Amino acid sequence: MKYYSTNRQAPVATLEEAVVKGLAADKGLFMPEAIKSLPQEFYGSIEQLSFQEIAYHVADAFFGEDVPAETLKQIVYDTLSFDVPLVRVKDAIYSLELFHGPTLAFKDVGGRFMARLLGHFIRKEGKKQVNVLVATSGDTGSAVANGFLGVEGIHVYVLYPKGKVSEIQEKQFTTLGRNITALEVDGTFDDCQALVKSAFMDKELNEHLQLTSANSINVARFLPQAFYYFYAYAQLKKIGKAENAVFCVPSGNFGNITAGLFGKKMGLPVKRFIAANNKNDIFYQYLLTGLYNPRPSVATIANAMDVGDPSNFARVLDLYDASHAAISSDISGTTYTDEQIRETVKKTYQETRYLLDPHGACGYRALEENLQPGEIGVFLETAHPAKFLDTVESIIGEEVEIPVKLQAFMKGEKKSLPMTKEFADFKQYLLSL
Ligand SMILES: *Cc1c(COP(=O)(O)O)cnc(C)c1O
């Protein structure tokens, strides 16, 4: 399979090139040249397959031409060593719990898959070390770092803003050691992101080191997120609720929802999608006006969705030939304030005992307000509520139990390197490696 750039000013790339480079030379995002439909028989008996079996079918459609079947199967099965259960919350609203992976965030799926696929390419080619740079405001860093931990030939540098990530999040990427280095930047998340971007553009650095990104712009992190939409559908079908399924996705950079849109293109019978935004509602405004106006992000309590210029919007446009009408007929949007998010976490907990995290709360509320009679709604619960401990505890006025997996991280010892926000310092450091 070849991959083209959404900007169409760069040569097409192989899967390997797309994964190793991350971003196309013209700064566009890579898109597969074909999106294969899966056969009717697959959908006809999907409810009898396991999560791993379903995911392998989907992975084969994307990557089967470029990765040997046994290797791909191994990568898929190793990645999905945890379940993604569908839990009924109320009436026709279901939570797809994506937080049962090692770092309790949905990014575990893409992070683990990408690490294994990149590892495969490095082994195959006998390549020199690949260095993954990732800027994080919390969740991406932990999922990527844990996904890549111990993968030979790859070193991960996590850049995070000093004092601006929660203690739990910080522990998840500063206690690992081995091929993971945490850089504690004296600055904001935007400063971290700027350092990473400058590094990718710096000619001298790129001659010296093989650098790549593990954000959702990378096809190897982005496409595997389609897996769980198929599995959710299978679970709905099993209970006779698969007709008129609506997926609602708490969205920031729009990687997660775009993977679902790919699923629909492959024939997955989804009626429609809802993109739930917090106050950073650039996409919602686009749906209303047809105009895409990126703006600086504002901080909210659903901070993984604080994105002012969603990178995967380029992929959404590309999928629908930039037709606002076509996009609006498949996707609707919502926007919520912190106050509304708090209210939703509290009310849902009181009424159903289901504890939402602030991101999932946006998804749940969007379904509550928008689901039509006869529709079944599935929102993606993108993180475990304990990852946002202080926020959630202050909302419900009760202590939240910390899962064993998170407690294990808390016991580790933090190790990080201090870094200024000056690119010259960061570059110097990378050159000295
Ligand atoms: C990353 C993240 C999101 C946003 O996902 P996108 O793919 O960037 O739209 C939502 N919720 C949580 C908890 C996240 O970590």
Automatic annotation (TrEMBL):
Residue span, Tryptophan synthase beta chain-like PALP domain: 96-375
Protein name: Threonine synthase
Gene3D superfamilies, A to Z: 3.40.50.1100, Threonine synthase, N-terminal domain (3.90.1380.10)
Gene name of the record: thrC
UniProt record similarity statement: Belongs to the threonine synthase family.
Pfam hit, one: Thr_synth_N
InterPro entries: Ser/Thr_deHydtase_PyrdxlP-BS, Thr_synth_N, Thr_synth_N_sf, Thr_synthase-like, Threonine_Synthase, TrpB-like_PALP, TrpB-like_PALP_sf
N6-(pyridoxal phosphate)lysine PTM sites in chain numbering: 107
Catalytic activity: O-phospho-L-homoserine + H2O = L-threonine + phosphate
Keyword annotations from UniProtKB, A to Z: Amino-acid biosynthesis, Lyase, Pyridoxal phosphate, Threonine biosynthesis
GO molecular function: pyridoxal phosphate binding; threonine synthase activity
Naturally occurring in which organism (per UniProt): Jilunia laotingensis
NCBIfam families recorded: thrC (TIGR00260)
Enzyme Commission no: 4.2.3.1
Cofactor: pyridoxal 5'-phosphate
Domain Threonine synthase N-terminal: 2-78
Leading EC class: lyase
Keyword Amino-acid biosynthesis: yes
Protein's GO biological process: threonine biosynthetic process
